[in-house]
Amino acid sequence: MEIANNNNNKMNNAFALKQLLADANKYFTDTNLDVPGIQWFEHLNIQVGSKVITETFYRDILGFTSDPSPSFHYNLGAQQFHFMLGKDDNNAHIIQGSIGLSVPSLKQVLKACHEVGNSKLSSSTKFQILSENDRMVTLIGPYGNTFHIYQAGYDESKDQVAFNNSKSITFMEKKHMKWDNAMDIQGKPGIKFLEFQCKNSEDVANFYQTYFGCNIYFDNSNDDEVNNNNNNHAVVQVGPNIYFIFTSNANLTTEMMKMQEGVHVAVYISQFKNSYDMLKKDNIIWTNPRFVRLDKCDTWEDAKAGRQYRFKDFIDSKTNNKIFELEHETRSIRHYQYLKDVAYVPFMMGTNDSAGEDMMKKTASLL
User: Fold this and answer.
1) Are 63 and 286 in contact (CB under 8 A)?
2) Domain 2-255, what fold?
3) What is the pTM of this model?
4) Are 218 and 205 a contacting pair, CB within 8 Å?
5) Strand, coil or helix: what is 228?
6) Bridge partner list, 244
7) Which 8-state DSSP code applies to residue 154?
8) How many helical (H) and strand (E) elements, i.e. helices and strands, does the chain have?
């Protein structure tokens, strides 16, 4: 029954997390239209098991595009997943939380889930479809990660239709209303959010605000649909409409956290030197020995030369205790890869998918 209850919570999460982001977005819009701190979340780096299984899931089911570089990267919209191959499936990372993706054709993803996933993955991996409808799907990936998949575009309720048809509303107001309520990333598919469980979501979010000045939003509604343990959530804005969500879970164990140890995110920030100096002063700057051939950041001159630095430990400024771990590959806006061109072909290309075609029309109206 514990597994069944956990799966029910995950199924409910897709809608509840979408609503959480809508509330956060409204708060950010009402209070501050700027995006201070983290300007762009570019990629998630995660360890996987079999290369064949990984390609089957991300390319053939989710519709990612293989990056033309020699690296094992897969692209969705303007963002990426970077994969590291582990020794076997048992070494694959499992994020304690969920990954929220926006896709151009949910219908096509669902078709692939049933035709490819159930035939090639369900018997030999952890792949499982937990819930599905015409706007969102919740999956367990082949290595145990939870994915909430959303149809890109916006939901046009009766109120929104009336709003759009109102002659007193300006053209720009209508565009931004659609933009704010869409599950797109700047009008494209992509990684809409990453959700991480932690001991105290408020402390983790405050870290982002203290060192980077990020916009943060707290939800203390104790909504059992999102999480049934200490249901406090913090949302950190990491791009114009991209988010990191932190969910408090008092029952989070050291063993659970070890399952995601080594995961890293790549972000681009404003105030590059100022944040480096603050993190360095508090002994948080960290050079990852695994990537030392790519970059190092022990000194400001190192970070300046590479235009990036790394850290992984979140420290409570009051107690100096470690409260969370997540490696951040942190880049200057003047890094050569900022807003780089990413090779991506929408999954619905070559299909007779009216939902995908409709999404493309709606996306065009957002741009």
Assistant:
1) no
2) 2,3-Dihydroxybiphenyl 1,2-Dioxygenase; domain 1 (3.10.180)
3) 0.90
4) yes
5) coil
6) 194, 236
7) B
8) 11, 15
- How large is the average pLDDT for residues 194-221? 95
Q: 3-state DSSP call for residue 182?
A: strand
The candidate with the shortest Cα–Cα distance to 147, out of 128, 134, 133, is 128
Which distant-in-sequence residues (6+ apart) come within 8 Å of 305 by Cβ?
none
The sign of the torsion formed by the CA atoms of 62, 66, 71, 75 equals: negative
The alpha carbon dihedral of 281, 283, 286, 287 has a sign of positive
Rounded Cα distance, 189 and 153, in Å: 9
Mean pLDDT over all residues of the chain? 88
- Average pLDDT in the 24-37 region? 94
Amino acid in position 169: I
From the list 268, 263, 198, 223, the residue with the least C-alpha distance to 40 is 268
| In the block, residue with structure tokens 């029954």 | 1
Phi and psi angles of residue 279, each rounded to the nearest 5 degrees, phi first: -65, -40
Give the DSSP H/E element, type plus range, for residue 191: strand 190-198
Nearest to 21 by CA among 328, 278, 241, 274: 241
Query: What average pLDDT does range 186-206 have in this prediction?
Result: 95
Among positive and negative, which fits the CA dihedral 321, 323, 329, 334? negative
The two three-digit tokens of residue 171, written as one number: 């053209």
> Letter for the amino acid at 163?
F
8 Å CB contact between 221 and 235: no
Report the C-alpha dihedral over residues 197, 200, 203, 204, rounded to 10 degrees.
Answer: -10
Q: String of b and e for 67-76 (b: at least 16 CB within 10 Å)?
A: beeeebbbbb
Rounded to whole angstroms, the Cα distance separating 164 from 337 reads 38
Separation of CA 10 from chain center: 16
CA-to-CA distance for 154 and 178, rounded, in angstroms?
A: 6
Q: What is the DSSP letter of 117?
A: I
Contact yes or no for 93/143 (Cβ under 8 A) = yes
Whether residue 170 is predicted with pLDDT greater than 60 in this model: the reply is yes
Residue type, 2: E
pLDDT at residue 43 greater than cutoff 90: yes
pLDDT number for residue 156: 65
The set of long-range contacts for 230-236, using a CB threshold of 8 Å and a minimum separation of 24, is 232/200, 232/201, 232/202, 233/20, 233/201, 234/201, 234/202, 234/204, 234/205, 235/20, 235/21, 235/24, 235/205, 236/38, 236/205, 236/208
Task: Read off the pLDDT of residues 177-192 as tens digits, 9 standing for 90 and up.
Answer: 888 888 999 889 999 9
